[in-house]
Amino acid sequence: MIKPFTPQLVYIEPGALEYDLGRELKEKFTKMGLEIKETTSHNQIRNLPGKNDFQKYRIAKSTLVVGVRKTLTFDSSKPSAEYAIPLATGCMGHCHYCYLQTTMGSKPYIRTYVNVNEILAQADKYTNARAPEITRFEASCTSDIVGIDHLTHTLKRSIEHIGKTKYGRLRFVTKFHHVDHLLDAEHNNHTRFRFSVNADYIIKQFEPGTSPLDQRLEAAAKVAEAGYPLGFIVAPIYLYSGWEDGYKVLFEKLHQKLPQTGRSGLTFEFIQHRFTKPAKKVIAKNYPMTKLELNEEKRKYKWGRYGIGKYVYQTDEQEIMKNTLRSYMDKYFPNAELEYFT
Fold it and tell me: CA–CA separation, 42 vs 22, rounded Å?
């Protein structure tokens, strides 16, 4: 049983205490007896506890920084959404393959932003500029926001805010089952609640620190009963010995666990495993015993954003992968929509 995240160490930027949420969080963490330190900026955090890089990395992953989001220009979030809404960065999970390995670099601690009203006001500006087109915001590009929201409720506030807009929509994905506080949110069907799922082999081998598949599916059933539009991201799709059976069992479990209320408007997203050369180096450092296959010679090179290419599966492997999982989706969820395969 994965317990809800509790940070070992909390840093608070002074500017955060100018906001109600910053003061509330400081009071909450003080009552919890957590170690709290001040920092002028998250960039000034130095000398995290730990005897070596291995220990420091793990302590950093359980460190929470309470700060102010200064950059209110939202990044693009294709193909999932028009924009990424920046509510938090970092994740307490230890997924070996995660792209945050490199985007977070030497600062893998978790950051939560307390100027939520300013962030939501900026989202409204983007929405109004595109009206009457629908504008989708992805809340989990740089974090697993559900993993910390039981502490901050910034996601819940965002769900209810966007629920009141005419043309705004919210999306996020999680590997955690701690969803109970979100079930009564007034979402008005404007938030798509997605769960990242995978074959049991992948979760057990490469996703330590996250909720087991069965708990994710139980949480998905609760979310469906709460009336949220629901989706599943199957990622990363990874070719291992017996992968066809592993993914078939995944879809069978989805079929067994998901109530009928969750099948209307159901979406899937398929994302194959990929890695970059910088990520490979960081993964080898942080998870030296990993069984993750990272052989460039077996892969196809694909140009990526910002000039950093990635290694994906060969074209014929991608077709087999896509067609196999699509056949499982069509069999067990014939009315579901596949939003994309990438």
Answer: 15
Contact 215/177 with Cβ under 8 angstroms?
yes
Q: Which residues contact 81 (CB under 8 A, 6 or more apart)?
A: 136, 137, 138, 169, 171
In 3D space, the residue among 313, 254, 264, 279 whose CA is nearest the CA of residue 108 turns out to be: 279
User: How high is the pLDDT of residue 45?
Assistant: 67
Does residue 212 have a cis peptide bond before it, meaning omega lies within 30 degrees of 0? no
d(CA 125, CA 77): 17
Tell me what pLDDT residue 79 has. Answer: 87
Residues 69 and 95 sit within 8 Å (Cβ to Cβ): no
DSSP per position, 43-81: GG----S-SSHHHHHHHHTTEEEEE-----PPPEETTTE
> φ, ψ for residue 322 (rounded to 5)?
-65, -45
Question: How many angstroms separate the CA atoms of 187 and 266, rounded?
Answer: 17
C-alpha 152/C-alpha 154 separation (Å) is 5
Contact yes or no for 67/42 (Cβ under 8 A) = yes
Sequence-ordered list of residues with C-beta below 8 angstroms from that of 47, at least 6 positions apart, any chain: none
What percentage of the chain's residues is helix, strand, coil (to nearest 5)? 40, 20, 40
HSE (CB half, 13 Å, CA atoms) of 31?
7
Q: What percent of the chain has pLDDT over 90?
A: 83
